């Protein structure tokens, strides 16, 4: 079944510009998946609960 739901994976979403982008897209109805480094887990976890979404711990700067 096709879905019109938009989904975005936001890298660096634990703080700064990444967090602001995640919040903005979430307010517009986009299903946001958060991403950050393991050291960012407390912030990602809190933001994920607030937004009702999930997060993935991964360093996307490495191959």
Structure commentary:
The protein is α/β, with parallel strands linked by helices and 63 residues long. The protein is built from 2 helices and 3 strands. It has helices at residues 16-27, 41-51; strands at 7-10, 31-36, 55-57. It has a 3-stranded parallel β-sheet with strand order 1-2-3, covered by helices on one side.
Please provide the ordered H/E string of secondary-structure elements. EHEHE
Extract low-pLDDT stretches: none
Q: What is the assembly state of the chains in this entry? A: single chain
- By secondary-structure content and strand pairing, the structural class works out as alpha/beta
List its traits.
single chain, about 35% helix, alpha/beta, three-stranded parallel beta sheet, about 60 residues
